[in-house]
Structure formats: structure tokens, C-alpha cells
Specification:
The complex is a heterodimer of chains A (337) and B (441).
Chain A: H1 20-42, H2 44-64, H3 74-84, H4 92-106, H5 120-131, H6 133-136, H7 146-153, H8 172-179, H9 185-190, H10 202-214, H11 221-240, H12 248-253, H13 257-264, H14 275-295, H15 302-319
Helix pairs in contact in A: 1-2, 1-3, 1-10, 2-3, 2-4, 2-7, 3-4, 3-5, 4-5, 5-15, 10-13, 11-13, 11-14, 14-15
Chain B: E1 25-27, E2 33-37, E3 47-48, E4 55-56, E5 61-64, E6 73-74, E7 79-88, E8 94-102, H1 123-132, H2 145-149, E9 159-164, H3 173-180, H4 182-196, E10 200-206, H5 210-218, E11 225-231, H6 240-248, E12 263-267, H7 268-280, E13 286-292, E14 300-305, H8 310-315, E15 324-329, E16 336-337, E17 351-356, H9 373-377, H10 384-392, H11 396-401, H12 412-416, H13 423-440
Parallel strand pairs in B: 1-14, 9-10, 9-12, 10-11, 13-17
Antiparallel strand pairs in B: 2-8, 3-5, 4-7, 5-6, 7-8, 13-14, 15-16, 15-17
The chains are: A mainly alpha (337), B alpha/beta (441).
């Protein structure tokens, strides 16, 4: 018999259909409609900020990461997600710095993909928020003069921003918190409010994230648990004092909750691996979001809520590990000798 | 649950059983040479009784069992013993084996044997007869069958479970046995129940074999308390512990055997072999196996003399195609890839699967992204993610503490891992390391 060259490998000899790059690039693909929407609302400035943040994530990943690491798509996700949490008109050097910080201090120092404790995109944003509080909380209104926004984008490194020509507004959450006015829910759903790039159209994000959940590239339990917790808490508080506390719909669809719940909290690396753990993790985020938004010093709490719960993931995983088969005998009494 | 009985977790690999499920069993011609390793079963290897130059008839005893958990080896064809020395073994090693040059023009008529009617035998005598016939489990692990037939001194058995799941992709050995030899299955079960003094039996069959279920149901003896349970199609449904969980809801305690929860499980092909021994008087010298995969020209279900070289079995099926890349003995989930096609098939060989390049898993490995797929797949609820990290650091003792002993190396974790981390391979290595640690300690 004429023999072909044979392969000898360990069992199992068949492999499942899903690979890690498949998951990562699908996440990237599902983000593209959201990217397109942000460009629709804010013009070329949105594209510039997203590109700068992604470049900031990719450069250190390429320089200091595993060989071929940028190819797995995870750094692109970090860059895009960070970009989507930034205001349009942000100086590009800041966006780049945020991406680089997220990858270096949020991922590479822990040992690269899979080893990090905190979501790198959120860590990058937390860094930017601490370093440049003014630039990070200046929210241009959607649909304004593209040229004016672009000019603030191009602020030279280490220079502060000149906002004379841009029309800014507070975010819906800022309006609620500091001025006591509520934005209509339809405006939140379709994204005609002020805010950062990807936080504006809740509906679109739900659809894109829903696609990932259907293909099982994200654990649906986490966003469901977050939304349910926020809805229940918000409704309860609204019933207690309808003047002071907004209703569930406003809480769900304002700010970064939808983006955070669908895309940031579900980062596989920084969320629990067990099913029960996913429920607990989501509920914890939901509680923290409500607490920070309503009683904290900040208008928005999603970022810190997720980062805080990230830190608890190893603990959650440990307490929710399932019972190993056969460790507690469940032999019916009549079968025992 | 309308989807059928089952266990929790597990995976759904593509089945590919359509290649051979409808093909009747046929007998392959005798090869020119037979190689019979002395170790074809779990337990101590057999002791050789023949020397080069000896003339043997088909069915003659060549090597005797050595102790209780051991099994004899018989000649699967008439011929002359040419050597008793090392030969390639399907486990990858070279191990002692008896070589027989098969007599080409022999009628292959076995010596006349007087087989007692089993109805007239005591359970002890039946166990002894099965032991001398060299019958072992045909499901893959090749555990000596007489050990399972003997009444355990320390446990009460209340139910016998026949395993007709055949959850490994590609294989249709048990499937065809049930379709073509239902009477043997029932008669073997009757012998088992008599030996063990058990009044109740259950047969677990995955739902993808409706013809097997129908064939068995049609011939089901009405005087036995036995029912056929259709099970959900899911891997590893045929693993002993998973099957017991699915049909009885009982969980075998860690470190214990099925008989400690009142159960004996036996594969349908092994049970049919018990009946065959009493029917024909021949010991276990041939078995049914599936030769399949896109890498084989004409796949089929064959009766193969034990000890036939893999090469000769493949030739009997038209040989390999151009695309064949990996030859697996057993199913593709737990079977072993063969580097040497001169190795013989054994009593426990359920099939030969020739996989093509596009089926063979050859993806790059990526870091673990903690997706948790392995936790959702593990049928015994281990944390393969954690065990994998420990294995990488060679922290064997900690793995032991994380119940590595419960792992049956079914491969579900490796199958689902998107990062293609060879988890079950690492766990196999860890088990080996722990075993050698214990034996030297």
C-alpha cells in the first residue's frame, strides 16, 4: 500500500468549530455598525478618535506582546471599545495614549492575553479620566460642524483643548444628576443625545451584542443580569421617590450601561467562567452602577462598577465552582450494600 | 424531558456514522501473518505457552492468563508460530507478541470442542468458562469480562446495564451488532443476569440508532425484566458513569466502581461475545470493527481476526485515499493515532478511522481566554481551565487536590477549547506523572 505521510497527534482528533481569533474578529465585526453610527452622528472626528485609540492599543501589543499577538484581534477590540467610550473632539494624542496605557498596564504587564485582571479598555479610560478630566467630560452635540470638531482633535500633544468653536452639552446622566432634567427614552434609544461615541444609540448596541450572544461569543447571562438588577433597583427607588430617582428605562438606556453591559462586562478574560458566577458578577455590576449614579460624586458609574467587579472575579470563580461528579455520594438508600 | 435521558454537560461532535451505519457486517479474508500481543487487556499480560515452530489450529490456546485480572490469548488463525518477541503495539510501544504465519490453504476449521450448555452450569462454572475463552470488554478498555461476571463479595448488584450508546463519532460496531445479532445480545444478557443473580436489566441506546432499538425490541425476551431506554445523542454518553447517571440517576462515588452503587455495565458487543462463546465453542479470536473515515476507499463493518495488522485491515477495505492523514484506532475522540501500521488490531479495537487533512485538528494554539467553554463541557464538572494552568506549571499534587482522578480523559475540554489548548493530553500526562510518583514513593 502506498502510504501518505501520517500525522500522529493526541486525542481528541476532532476539534470544535470555534477558535479564539474567530471569537475576537467576530466581536470586532459586530462593533463595526456601532462605529459607523458614531461616524454618522459625529462625522470624521469619530473615525479619527477610534483610529487613534486602536493604533495606541496595537503599537505596544506589536512591540512587547507575544509574536503575532495583534493578529488575534484582541487589541483591536480594546482600541475600538476605548474609542467608543471617548468624547468626539478629544485630542487624538490623548486617545492614542489611553489605548497604549490600557494595553501596557491593563494587559501586557500581567502577561498578555488571558492573564489580565481588569478590562484593558476600561483601565485606559480610567487613566484618561484621571489625567484629563476636562477633556474627558466635554460632550459635543451630535450633528454639528465637522471641521470644528476635527480642529480640536488635532490639538498638539500636551496642549490643552480650545473649545471655543464647538457646541457642547451635558450628557443625559449629567442633566439628570446636576440639573434634575430627564431626557426622553426614544432619544436615548436612537442616539440623538450628547455623549461619547458609542454610548449614544442603545438600540444599535443591543442588536450588535445580541448577534454575539446568539453565536455564543458572549455570555448572555452577564448583560441580562446587569439589566435586570438595574431595572429592579431603579423601579423600586422610583416608586419610593419618583421626583428624585428616574425610572428603569432611563437608567437602562442612558450613559454607557448598554455598551458596558454588552461589550465590557462580557470580556471573557475579565469575567467569571462559571454560569452561576456570571449571574453574581452581573448583579454586582448592576448594584454598583445604581449606587454610583444616584449617590456617588460622578454622573456615570458603569466604568468603575465593572472595574470593581473585575477585581472580584477570581473570588467569584472560586465560590461558584460546581460540585465535582461523584464527590458527594448520591446513591439511593435501597442500592447501598 | 422529551429529548431523552442524558447526563449534564458534554459535547456534540459531528457523527459521520452514515458512512457505515447501513453496511452489513462482512468477514475479511485471513491475512498472511497474525501478531498477537500478550497484553491485549487491562491487567497482567498473558504467559506464552508456545515456541517458534509450533503448529497451531484456529482457537488453540497460545498464552494463559496470569492471575485473576488477566486474560488468555488464542490463535485467531491456523498456522505456524514463527516468533515470540517484540512487536509494535497500538499503544505506541513495542511489546511481547506471538507471531503466526497463517496457513494459506487451511480450511481454518477449529478443533472440535465440547461446549457445555450454559443452562446446566453453575454461575461459578460460567465465569470460569468465560475466563478461559479470553473474553474482554469490547468497548475499548478491554477489561476482562469474567471479573465483571463474578458476584462481588462486598456489594449487592440490583441492575445490569447494557451499553449500546456508541457515542464516539464514526463507529458503528455496536450499532451493527445490535441490528444483526439481537439474539446474541439477549442471550448474553441472560447469562450475565444468571451469573450475577440480578433480576433487572436496562439497555441504553442513543436515539440516532432507531433500527438497533427496533431490532432489539422485536427480539426482546418477554420473560426478562429488561427495558430499552433511548438516550440523547451526546458525547460521552457511553462513558460508564455518564450512562449510569442517565438511566438510573445514580452517581458513582469518586474512587469507587459502578458496583458500589449496585450496577454492572457491559458493552453490547461484549455481551454478544459471551453468547457467542457458548454458541460456537470458540474463544474470543475475532471481533466486529468499523473501518471508516473519508480516508478509506470503501468503509465498512468487518469481522476481523484479532492480531491482523492495521495495514491488512485497511487493504481489505480498498486501502487509503490520497487525502488520508491520520489513522486512529478507536473513535476520534479517545482513540490513539497510529505511527506504525504494522501494529495489530486487538480484542478491544472498536474500529479504525482514517481522517483526512481537513478533519485533522491542526490549528495554532492561543493563550487561554477564560471563556469557560471547557467548564460547560466537562461531564464530571472539573475546572479544566484551572487544571490546565496547574499542568503547565507541573504542579501535579495540586491537580490531584482538584480531583484530577475523576477525569476520564474523554477529551470534551480539548474539543471545545477555542484556543486549541491540548487539555486532555496534559491531564493524561499529569495522571501518568502522579502514578509514577506514587509507585516510587
Amino acid at each position: 500500500m502506498n502510504l501518505p505521510r501520517l500525522i500522529v497527534s493526541a486525542s481528541p482528533h476532532l476539534g470544535g468549530p470555534v477558535s479564539t481569533p474567530t471569537i475576537m474578529w467576530n466581536v470586532v465585526g459586530s462593533l463595526l455598525p456601532i462605529v459607523a453610527a458614531s461616524v454618522w452622528f459625529f462625522g470624521p472626528s469619530a473615525l479619527a478618535v477610534l483610529a487613534a485609540a486602536t493604533a495606541g492599543a496595537l503599537v505596544p501589543e506589536r512591540l512587547f506582546g507575544r509574536r503575532g499577538a495583534p493578529g488575534d484581534g484582541s487589541a483591536v477590540i480594546t482600541g475600538l471599545l476605548l474609542g467608543l467610550t471617548l468624547p468626539p473632539g478629544l485630542p487624538l494624542w490623548m486617545a492614542f495614549l489611553g489605548g497604549a496605557f490600557g494595553i501596557v498596564f491593563g494587559k501586557l504587564v500581567f502577561g498578555g492575553l488571558g492573564q489580565n485582571v481588569f478590562n484593558p479598555a476600561l483601565l485606559g479610560r480610567a487613566f484618561l479620566q484621571a489625567a484629563f478630566p476636562v477633556a474627558l467630560t466635554t460632550w459635543p452635540v451630535p450633528g454639528q460642524d465637522a471641521a470644528a470638531l476635527l480642529s480640536t482633535n488635532l490639538t498638539a500633544p500636551l496642549m490643552s483643548v480650545d473649545l471655543a468653536d464647538t457646541i457642547t452639552s451635558a450628557t443625559p446622566l449629567g442633566l439628570m444628576k446636576f440639573e434634575g432634567t430627564l431626557t426622553d427614552v426614544p432619544a436615548l434609544l436612537f442616539g440623538t443625545t450628547g455623549g461619547c461615541l458609542g454610548e449614544t444609540s442603545a438600540l444599535l448596541i443591543l442588536i450588535c451584542g445580541g448577534y454575539l450572544a446568539l453565536r455564543r461569543f458572549l455570555d448572555w447571562r452577564i448583560p441580562v443580569s446587569i439589566f435586570a438588577t438595574v431595572a429592579v433597583l431603579a423601579t423600586a427607588l422610583h416608586l419610593v421617590d419618583g421626583e428624585r430617582y428616574p425610572g428603569a428605562l432611563f437608567m437602562l438606556f442612558s450613559g454607557g450601561l448598554v455598551l458596558g453591559a454588552m461589550y465590557m462586562a462580557t470580556d471573557m478574560v475579565t469575567s467569571p467562567s462559571t454560569r452561576r458566577g456570571a449571574w453574581i458578577f452581573g448583579a454586582g455590576i448592576g448594584v454598583l452602577v445604581v449606587v454610583i449614579r444616584l449617590w456617588g460624586g460622578l454622573a456615570e458609574g458603569v466604568m468603575y462598577a465593572i472595574l470593581l467587579m473585575n477585581a472580584l472575579v477570581p473570588f467569584i470563580d472560586r465560590i461558584t465552582r460546581p460540585r465535582v461528579f461523584g464527590t458527594v455520594p448520591t446513591v439511593p438508600a435501597e442500592a447501598r450494600p | 424531558m422529551f429529548a431523552g435521558l442524558t447526563f449534564r454537560h458534554g459535547v456534540h461532535p459531528p457523527e459521520h456514522k452514515e458512512l457505515t451505519a447501513g453496511i452489513p457486517i462482512r468477514r475479511m479474508p485471513f491475512p498472511e501473518e497474525i501478531v498477537l500481543p500478550l497484553s491485549q487487556h487491562a491487567g497482567k499480560p498473558a504467559r506464552p505457552l508456545v515456541a517458534p515452530g509450533d503448529r497451531v489450529e484456529r482457537g488453540d490456546l497460545l498464552a494463559a492468563f496470569d492471575g485473576w485480572i488477566s486474560s488468555p490469548v488464542h490463535a485467531s488463525a491456523a498456522g505456524t508460530v514463527t516468533a515470540v518477541d517484540l512487536a509494535p503495539h497500538p499503544d505506541g510501544s513495542f511489546s511481547p507478541a506471538i507471531h503466526i504465519a497463517v496457513e494459506r490453504w487451511s480450511a481454518q476449521t477449529p478443533r472440535e470442542r465440547l461446549v457445555p450448555e450454559w443452562e446446566d452450569l453453575s454461575p461459578e462454572e460460567i465465569v470460569e468458562a468465560v475466563r478461559h475463552a479470553g473474553v474482554v470488554g469490547l468497548g475499548g478498555a478491554a477489561f476482562p469480562t469474567h471479573v465483571k461476571l463474578a458476584r462481588p463479595p462486598d456489594a449487592e448488584i440490583d441492575v445490569v446495564i447494557l451499553n449500546g450508546c456508541e457515542c464516539e463519532p464514526y463507529l458503528t460496531t455496536d450499532h451493527r451488532t445490535m441490528v444483526e445479532y439481537p439474539d446474541r445480545v439477549w442471550s448474553g444478557l441472560r447469562i450475565m443476569m444468571r451469573c450475577l443473580g440480578v433480576a433487572r436489566a436496562l439497555v441504553g441506546i442513543e436515539r440516532n440508532k432507531p433500527d438497533a432499538i427496533a431490532a432489539l425490541e422485536e427480539r426482546r425476551p418477554r420473560d426478562l425484566d429488561v427495558s430499552i431506554l433511548p438516550l440523547t445523542v451526546k458525547y460521552p454518553q457511553g462513558a460508564e458513569k455518564m450512562l449510569i447517571k442517565a438511566v438510573l440517576g445514580r452517581e458513582v462515588p469518586v474512587g469507587k466502581l459502578p458496583l458500589h452503587c449496585g450496577v454492572v455495565v457491559q458493552n453490547v458487543a461484549s455481551v454478544a461475545t459471551i453468547a457467542e462463546v457458548f454458541e460456537t465453542g470458540l474463544p474470543l479470536i475475532e471481533r466486529i470493527m468499523t473501518v471508516t473515515g473519508k480516508g478509506v476507499r470503501s468503509p465498512g463493518n468487518l469481522i476481523v481476526p484479532v492480531g491482523t495488522r492495521i495495514r491488512d485491515v485497511l487493504d481489505a477495505c480498498g486501502g487509503l485515499t490520497e487525502g488520508a492523514r491520520e489513522i486512529v484506532l478507536g473513535g476520534p475522540m479517545m482513540g490513539a493515532a497510529q505511527p506504525n501500521l504494522d501494529a495489530p488490531v486487538l480484542k478491544g479495537t472498536t474500529g479504525i478511522v482514517a481522517l483526512t487533512a481537513d478533519e485533522v485538528r491542526r490549528r495554532a494554539s492561543h493563550p487561554c481566554i477564560r471563556c469557560g467553554s471547557c467548564l460547560d463541557a466537562c461531564p464530571v464538572f472539573l475546572d479544566p481551565q484551572l487544571l490546565g494552568r496547574l499542568a503547565k506549571a507541573q504542579r501535579w499534587d495540586e491537580m490531584d487536590g482538584q480531583h484530577l482522578g475523576v477525569c476520564m480523559l474523554c477529551g470534551c475540554c480539548s474539543y471545545v477549547c477555542p484556543s486549541n489548548i491540548p487539555l486532555s493530553q496534559m491531564f493524561g500526562m499529569a495522571k501518568k506523572a502522579l502514578r509514577s510518583q506514587r509507585s516510587t514513593a
